[in-house]
Write a structure and sequence with these properties.
Layout (H helix, E strand, L loop, with lengths): L1 H5 L1 H25 L1 H4 L3 H7 L7 H13 L8 E2 L2 E2 L8 E3 L5 E3 L14 H6 L21 H6 L17 E9 L2 E9 L2 E8 L5 E5 L4 E2 L9 E13 L2 E12 L8 E4 L3 E3 L2 E8 L5 E6 L3 E4 L2 E11 L3 E7 L6 E7 L2
Antiparallel strand pairs: 1-2, 3-4, 5-14, 6-7, 6-13, 7-8, 9-10, 10-11, 11-12, 14-15, 16-17, 17-18, 18-19
C-alpha cells in the first residue's frame, strides 16, 4: 500500500498510456479497412449515370454575367425616361380620385393639354386656368403652345403663325347674271341684274368672252349653247342653256344659265383677324394674296371661301413647302 502511494503518479501515467495505445491501434485498423468499405472513385463514376455534365458551361456563363457592368433601363413614358429613384407624381382631386400624372392612360386634368406635358415643363397642373395662361409672354397661351408643339417657357419658341388667325365674317359682293336673249350662236345677250347700281348688258356670241360691268375686264366666256328639256312650273319645254367658263379661274366648274333665268354668283370675301398682339383685320376673296401689317413678310393665299369656312395656304419662314389650313367661321 505504501508503494502505491509512493508510485501513484507513475501508475496513473501508465494507465493513460495503455488506453491511448489501444485507441491508436483501433484507429489504424479502421483506416486500413477504409478501401474495403468504399468503392474507388473510378468505379463509382463507371457505375453512376448522371447525364451530360454542363456544370463548367454554367459556371462560365455566371462568371461572364458577373464581369459585365450592370445596366438599368428605366421605363419610358411618351418618349421620356422616368426615373424609379424619385416618387411618381400623383394628384388627388376634390372627389377623392387619385390620378397618376405620368400614366398615359390617366384622365387629362387640364384638357386639351396632356398631364405629362404640363409636368415636363413644370407648369402648375393644380391651377384651373393653366391652359389659358401665357407663361412666357409671347402672345400664345399654354394650350396654344401645346397644340403648336412649342416650348411654353421660351418666348423664341412659337407655334405656327396661322394659329392666331380667326375667320370673323363672310362678305358677299352681289352678282346676278341673266341669260336674257338668244337668236343664234352669234347673237346672245347676258345681263347683270344685281347689284342694281352695276346693272349691265353684254352682247356676245359663242366662243367669245364678256365683261360684267362697263369698261371692265373679261370675266366669263361663252363655251357653247345646248338645247335641253327644262321643267318649269310643271311644264316641260325645250330651252337654250348657255355654258360659261370663268376666265379668271379656269379650273372652276362651268356655269349654266337657262334662257330667261337668273344665276346668283356672289363673290365671297373672308374677313380674317390676326389676334397676335393688337387685333388686325383684312379681307380677301378667292385667289387673293393677303398679309397683315405686323407680319408683312408672311403672305397668305385665299384658296376658297364659303359661308362657313375659308381655306388658305402660306409658306412658313425657313421652309419651302406650303402649309394649307382652314378656318371655321366664329
Amino acid at each position: 500500500m505504501e508503494w502505491l502511494k509512493a508510485k501513484y503518479d507513475r501508475l496513473l501515467l501508465g494507465t493513460f498510456g495503455t488506453v491511448a495505445l489501444l485507441a491508436g491501434g483501433l484507429l489504424v485498423s479502421k483506416v486500413l479497412g477504409f478501401n474495403s468499405q468504399f468503392a474507388p472513385e473510378d468505379e463509382v463514376r463507371q457505375n453512376a449515370n448522371f447525364g451530360e455534365d454542363k456544370s463548367a458551361e454554367r459556371v462560365d456563363a455566371a462568371l461572364t454575367r458577373l464581369s459585365e457592368p450592370a445596366e438599368f433601363k428605366p421605363p419610358v413614358v411618351k418618349g421620356k425616361p422616368v426615373s424609379l429613384f424619385v416618387s411618381a407624381p400623383v394628384l388627388k382631386t376634390v372627389d377623392g380620385a387619385v390620378i397618376a400624372i405620368l400614366s398615359p392612360d390617366a384622365k387629362q386634368v387640364r384638357p386639351p393639354i396632356d398631364n405629362e406635358w404640363l409636368y415636363r415643363y413644370s407648369l402648375d397642373i393644380t391651377r384651373q386656368d393653366i391652359a389659358d395662361i401665357d407663361t412666357d409672354n409671347d402672345g400664345f397661351s399654354n394650350a396654344e403652345e401645346f397644340t403648336g408643339k412649342s416650348n411654353p417657357k421660351d418666348p423664341q419658341s412659337l407655334p405656327a403663325a396661322h394659329t392666331k388667325l380667326v375667320f370673323k365674317e363672310v362678305l358677299k359682293d352681289e352678282l346676278s347674271l341673266k341669260f336674257n336673249a338668244y337668236n343664234d350662236d352669234n347673237d346672245l345677250q347676258i345681263q347683270r341684274t344685281a347689284p342694281v347700281a352695276k346693272k349691265y348688258t353684254a352682247f356676245t356670241k359663242v366662243g367669245e368672252g364678256f365683261a360684267i360691268e362697263k369698261g371692265g375686264e373679261t370675266a366669263y366666256k361663252i363655251e357653247k349653247v345646248e338645247k335641253r328639256e327644262v321643267k318649269d312650273s310643271g311644264i316641260t319645254d325645250i330651252k337654250p342653256v348657255v355654258i360659261l367658263s370663268d376666265v379668271k379661274n379656269p379650273k372652276a366648274k362651268p356655269l349654266e344659265i337657262v334662257l330667261g333665268k337668273v344665276l346668283e354668283l356672289p363673290t365671297l370675301r373672308a374677313k380674317i383677324a390676326n389676334t397676335l398682339g393688337k387685333e388686325e383685320l383684312i379681307e380677301g376673296a378667292e385667289g387673293a394674296e393677303i398679309s397683315f401689317p405686323s407680319a408683312a413678310d408672311v403672305k397668305y393665299t385665299v384658296l376658297k371661301v364659303t359661308d362657313q369656312k375659308v381655306d388658305l395656304e402660306y409658306t412658313e419662314q425657313g421652309k419651302t413647302e406650303k402649309t394649307q389650313f382652314s378656318l371655321e367661321l366664329k
